[in-house]
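Why this split exists: single-chain examples teach little about how molecules sit against one another. For that reason, every record in the complexes split bundles all components of an assembly together and asks for one structure covering all of them. Below is a record exactly as it appears in the raw files.
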Amino acid sequence: MADEERNDPPWGRPVQSDEVEGRHGGEDEGRSEQDVAHADGDDYPGSHDEAEPRHDSGDYDSSEYDDDAPDSNTQRDVVMHSPEGDADEPDMRVTNEAVPDSIKDQTREGEEPYQWHSGTKRDHGSTDAIEFIDVKKSFGRNTILNGLNLGIPDNQISMILGPSGTGKSVCIKHMVGLLYPDEGDVLVHGESVPNMVDDELFEMRKKFGVLFQDGALFGSMNVLDNTAFPLRQHTDKGDEEILEICHRRLAEVGLSGALDKMPNELSGGMRKRAGFARALVLDPDIVLFDEPDSGLDPVRTALLCELIQEVHAENGGAYAVITHDIMSARRVADYIAVLWKGRIVESGPASELFNSPNQFVRQFLSGEARGPLGME
Amino acid sequence: MGWLSVPKDWIASFGDITKFMARVMGEVYSLRVMKFFGESLRQAGILILGSAVVIWGLAFIIGLTCGIEGAYFNRSVGAPAYAGVFSAWCDLREAMPYAFGYMMSAKVGTGLVAEIGAMKISDEVDALEVMGISSLTFLCSTRLLAAWMVLPFIYIAAVGAGFLASYLAVVQQIGEVSSGGFFLIFWMFQNPPDLLFSVIKGMMMATVIVLVGCYYGYTAGGGPVGVGTATAKSMVLNTVAVHIIGMVGTQIFWGSNPRAPIGG
């Protein structure tokens, strides 16, 4: 095993697929089973900060791994690979044999599928609220995530950027347990999502606020009832207090005058803002935005970005925004991860990513037509 | 073998539907659904306001048909006074359960698929889940509970509408038997257990229709076209299920003992 198979997570012990026996592949499968814990619990505790690299599996070359990662506890906070070397001698190459056909189909002839994936994870100065560990996910023959390693830092606005159809929305669904990985693990505040039983999962989801692409407002309720819905379901607050919270949140997003309107009476932007207000009423620790700028004009996109920043400044927490709009990324992102072909190309603080020498990252973040990304 | 894939798919679908039904009913029996009792009441209100009059209207028309057919048939065999036999059996045992099943399939079942399916493709179901609310319980079990709370009464009222229609057709419209003569025979050929059995048939149909509707809505995918396809599939399955339940119910409840006071 040489270079070709060094596609391990750059900031921690690689989780071998045969070590994880969680609930994978379907929402229903085995959900009620209590014995879905990892087969090797000692080697794979909830917080993977504590995990020691285990080199006895024979699946990768330990000496080469150690060259790059001398201390597992510091791996997260260092640049693992020299960005300068990416273009000439990529570190994360895998052989075509190891790559699913659906990923090969996106690759130009004669190129390595992951030659631009340096996997570099620059220090973001915070702990990770959400972690993806070597996550693989396929739908039929179509592989969407192929060994995804990603951390979403706490108390920052993160942006997951990437070309269309590269698995960004699938990422969000893994974070909240709407989808489960075929292999690998997803941790939220150190707890493994695929290994949660139903009650734990529903409890964990209360930490989240999610803004879906079209707001996902309930069609049978007006804006006020939509916003009040999570509070009515999850809290013992009186109606007066609930209404006070809803009015405040709706005022923040500029919808004080639309309380009685039904979702079908709202514009796309208003639906998004109403969805944003609803996502915030429970004061979530983590807020996820699935393409908040889709279908909005540039001015409203800018206003929504401003709103995200303001609300984050007021409430804090981990905000993760899925988008392929570079302007939005420039406006609000503290941290950026670039996703392509089911893996992270590079991730790090926004200012560093925008100056990255990686050709793919540079092409994508500047929106140029010429570069590694084509129409494949 | 290619042709084997079709029955295999049917069996797989049947297994999926059965598993889904068990989960939804489990949420009702375990009383988890009571967390959303308000939603059940809202759904019950929608059933009463949206479907009751339509079901009663259809029941009335079927009752008229049973009465007219029965009256003319009995006249043709020289026993017009016995028109009540036809009305009693037709209305209570067969026509009402089927009419109820058809209308439930057409209105309630397809409505459920369309409503839940639309929620599914517009991410509303996912939105429920990420709020920490079991979408299966909130969307499906509440509707099943609402159906169980409301539909027995709607069904009994529908039977009443059918009886009234038969009476009007036989006694008031055709008029070859007196009111007293009609009712003498009419009540002689039915008893309270028959009503209970009829209600059981109707509720079995209603339960299956609601669950099938919820299943196809909850598992809908592929955008609006997918919801349309799921609606059509649910209608087909519900129509077949209504007839199977009707046939099995008749065999079980009246197959061995028709309870007909004929020949002493």
